[in-house]
Structure formats: C-alpha cells, structure tokens
Amino acid sequence: MQLGKNYFGKTKDGEHVYEYIIENKNGFKVNILNYGGIITEILAPDRNNKYENVVLGFNNIQDYEEKSPYFGCIVGRTAGRISGGKFTIDEEQYKLVKNNGSNNLHGGSKAFDKVLWQVEEIVEKDYISLILYYESKHLEEGYPGNLKVKVIYTIDEENTLNVNYEAITDRKTIINLTNHSYFNLSGNLKEDILNQKLTIKADKYVRVNEEILPTGELMDVNNTAFDFKEGKRVGSHIHDNIRDLKICGGYDHPFVFNRAEGYKALLEDEKSGRRLEVYTDQPVAVLYTGNFIDDTITLKEGIVGRKHLGLCIETQDYPDHINQPNFPTTLYTPENKYRAYTMYKFSKM
Predict the structure, then answer these.
(1) Given 53, 162, 252, 317, which is the most exposed site by the fewest CB atoms within 10 A?
(2) Which residues of this UniProt protein bind beta-D-galactose (predicted)?
(3) Which of 179, 113, 178 is nearest to 141 (CA)?
(4) Could you say which of 1.10.260.40, 2.60.260.20, 2.70.98.10, 3.40.50.720 is the CATH number of the domain covering 2-348?
(5) pLDDT tens readout for residues 72-89
C-alpha cells in the first residue's frame, strides 16, 4: 500500500489544495483532493489488467472552482434539490441559499464541495484510509446546527473503495450526504456511457417535475424505461419520447432500492471487461447520466466534454424528504448521529 501527496494549486481565496494518492499493490489507485473531498481519478484494471482512469475530472483547481459539474465531490449538507430553498423544523422556517433557480442544490453556493477539509492519513498493511474533517457552522448556507462532519475514504487490496460518512449536530437538522463521482468504465473516456450495462435493484423510481424536483410520486419501474432490475444498456431507452426522460435530457431520477441481497447497482463495460458493484446502506440512489455536460469543459485527458460522458450513482436518503409528505423523513439531533456507508468494488467481467 502506498500514499503520496502532490500540490494541486491555489484557490481564488489563496487556499492551498493538495491531491492525495492512495494505491494498493495491484495498481488500483484513487486520487482525492482536500478541496471538496473530490475524487479526481480512479485507476481500475480492464480484462487485460491495463489500469486506466474510470471517473471524470479536471487537472486544475480553477476548473473545479468555476465550472462546477460536481465532479467527484462530497455533496452536503443535502444531496439534490430542496424545493423553494426552504424547510421547516418544529415550526421554525429555515431559508437556504438558492443556487438553482428558486431551489437549493447540493447544499448551496459554497457547500461541502467548495471548502477545504482537514485530512488525516492512516496507512496499514492491507488498507489505506484518508479521514476528512469539516465543521459546518450554524446557518451556513442557511442550514441549522453546528455540524461536525467526517468522511472516510478507504481502499484495500481487493480493489474496493469504501466511503463512510459521519456527522454530529448540536441542534435538530437535516443531513443527506453523497459522493458525486461520474463513472465511465471504458477507460480514459474512450467512449460515452450509453453502451455500458447498468443494473439497479429498484422496483420504484421517483418522478420529477420541470425543475427536477421530486414530485413525491413513486412509480413502478416494471415495463418502463426505468426498469434496470435485470440489467440493460444505459442508452437503451434514454432517448425515448416520454415526459420523465425528456424534461431531464436523460436520467436524473431517484431509484428506491428493493430488499434484494448483495450489490444495489452494477455497471459493466463489455468492451473493456471492467465491472463496478455498488453496495450501500442508503435507501435511494439518484441515477444521473451527465445530461448537462457540454463542450464548455475539457476533462483531464484533454477530451472535450459532451453529454452522457459519465454517469453518477448518488447513494443517499430520499431527496427533499423534509418537504415531501409521501417520503419518510429523518431528522438528526445531538443524540442521533448521522451515519452512511457506500462501497465501490471494481473487478473484471
């Protein structure tokens, strides 16, 4: 196991950003910034044991600050959109920063993806962990409670990346964290993700409206473009002329996991032979197929951005649950610590 650290650049506020490189003896490697906890690169093997990058990222801090497609970052305090940029707890209304029309998206304008995290390194014989710490102040971006957050990235010799989230608040609040990595198993972005095969163990998905806000409606996936239970190409139905896909330009929908054992999602690339299993204790994943990536960005490989170049499997709680009476709502207090877990297991077909 190896751990390295490189200087990545300086933010517009003069903060120094470092890239941590954690690698196992196989050559499986994950690069992570102390800015936003961003995963900038994951090197995973194809069927011929060739290690190539399988996530989207930039090669400079300025693009992460200014272009903001949320590549690889920690999302918080809440993943997804909070409708109207407000919510009420115990008859007290909290007004959030509105950074997506009239809504709050992924925690606000300077949320967890746009701040420096403190980093602790742990190197053991069979694993390496990076522990990232951040303290979010009461009413930061409008959210209640002083919140102490810890995110632990761990790799092992089995080519798995484990992400553990913990948070403690000093007053009642909402918390819903995720990682926003865009995966593409072709290796170094040789192709888009439309021919990659996706399985999601979900019987229902959540409808969204024109603002990509949850409507609260849980829809059966059976015999629809949203049925990934048996696995199919991402692009099989992505261009179908149906409302739920047209308003998003593809998939940007929460899927509610069923009780099936094992992985919750599986992504496979037949051409490269790469395989990614996603395990989590969260009830939902938002499938986002990179619908808003365009040619105004250039990826670290020098490739110009385009639609559907990567996909996100954003494991999380129900988005906007605080404003959705049909969704189960979880509130966190000093006695009720937030915990969440997701594992990404890379292998060969």
Answers:
(1) 162
(2) 180-182, 252
(3) 113
(4) 2.70.98.10
(5) 999 999 999 999 999 999
